Amino acid sequence: DTEVTQTPKHLVMGMTNKKSLKCEQHMGHRAMYWYKxxxxxxxxxxxxxxxxxxxxxxxxxxxxxxxxxxxxxLNLHLHxxxxxxxxxxxxxxxxxxxxxxxxxxxxEAFFGQGTRLTVV
Amino acid sequence: xxxITQTQPGMFVQExxxxxxxxxxxxxxxxYGLFWYKQPSSGEMIFLIxxxxxxxxxxxxxxxxxxxxxxxxxxxxVISASQLGDSAMYxxxxxxxxxxxFGSGTQLxxxx
Lengths: 120, 112
Description:
The complex is a heterodimer. Chain A contains one helix and eleven strands, in the order E-E-E-E-E-E-E-E-E-H-E-E. In chain A, strands 2, 4, 5, 6, 9, 10 and 11 form a seven-stranded mixed sheet that branches. The N and C termini of chain A lie far apart (about 35 Å). Chain A has one helix at about 105; strands at about 5, 10-15, 20-25, 30-35, 45-50, 55, 65-70, 75-80, 85-95, 110, 115-120. Chain B is about 0% helix and about 50% strand. In chain B, the strands form three sheets. In chain B, strands 2, 5, 6, 10, 11 and 12 form a six-stranded mixed sheet that branches. In chain B, strands 3-9-8-7 form a four-stranded antiparallel sheet, with no helix packed on it. Chain B starts with a strand and ends with a strand.
């Protein structure tokens, strides 16, 4: 199984709603990532979890709250979002092995299909 | 940190022809990797090909090959025999999953 599964695929929410995005992988990866991607732009890193601990937060507003309940699951809790937060949210995972190896197994990120979020 | 530059916002190619998408990178690391991803309009990020900095041969995966010139810090993607289904956004990225930086992307359109 080399899949990263994201749910839902599409989400429309109001600015006062609370919703969550879910990401799941069963490849034994210990690093998981959230990216935000606006139309016609490259993905931008939001959060990195390594061994279920938050290791990188790229100055993301607190209305985005990540959670990693176990090594297979990553959530992104959304609250009081703004229309400019509308974007494609991509989850990814990687082996997460520390060290300098440049072999593909050690360095490749596997991406989910994304959640298209619209804030109205 | 690594910087990735893609200088072709859009490219057109005739079906069955070959096309080269440019990517240059800037890093002070000795050990790194470079990835190419394809992103169709559906949004999924599809892995195409990978080149490690210590790999002596250029990577190939089916119709995709990577023209890796380490001294020039370039890692261009070559797609041979283009197909209509190759129309998509293409991203160059590196150096590894833990520090993945993307270029700005190239929108490839394959013409019938």
